[in-house]
Amino acid sequence: TGHEIWLTRGRVVDAMRASYALPGIFSPVLIGDRWLVDGALVNPVPVSAARALGAEIVIAANLSSDIFTHSTTIYSHGAVPETVPPAAEATTAKRRFPRLFSPEKTMKREFFGGAGRPGISSVMVDAFNIMQDRITRARLAGDPPDLLITPRVGHFGWFDFHRGEDLIAHGTRAAERALESIQEAIEVLAPAPAGNAPKTGEPKADE
Questions:
Q1: CB within 8 A of 99, min separation 6: which ones?
Q2: Contact criterion met (CB below 8 Å) for 48 and 39
Q3: Is the pTM here over 0.85, yes or no?
Q4: Is residue 29 within 8 Å of 17, Cβ to Cβ?
């Protein structure tokens, strides 16, 4: 339906499962009376949800910041001039006719693509990334976080599960580079009460 659903009760595992239910990759998840898919379809970096749920400081991580950073408008485009003589093209088509219409080969070609031609899977992933990038930019422009961390992970693919440790390391380094800014944001936006601040060198304990 396009509704943005905030899951605030129930099992964490169900919420996590629904949150990565990418259309076309993972099946939707039934929670309550709704079939849910990945929330990135409507709000990839949910700053608004964090604020509405009471966050004093919102530190967001945008994982698509370097995927399509140079996207622009191509204002003049059209068909490439014909370079293959019609007779040669007809001969080639006749020779390949049986192979092109083999059901199994046709399905493989459509899904995985071929030389110079993208398949359904790559087109679907790229389309989702483009959509997520555009929505993220629009949402962050209207409701920016107090601090935005942008790890450069555009070279990681959706199915690079074997590169998990490298991905975590990239995120760790990005967060560490932002530590000073995080501390400044905390001091400005959520300063500790003067009476509760520990003196220099004095340990602080709570009952």
A1: 105
A2: no
A3: no
A4: yes
Retrieve residue 130's tokens. Answer: 């483009």
Separation CA 60–CA 49 (nearest Å): 11
Q: For residue range 11-44, what is the model confidence (pLDDT) as tens digits? A: 999 999 999 898 878 899 999 999 999 998 899 9
pLDDT (average), residues 51-65: 90
Q: What is the DSSP string of 143-198?
A: S--SEEE----TTS-TT-GGGHHHHHHHHHHHHHHTHHHHHHHHHHHSPPPGGGPP
As a whole number of angstroms, the distance between CA 172 and CA 174 comes to 5
Contact between 34 and 5 under an 8 Å Cβ cutoff? The reply is yes
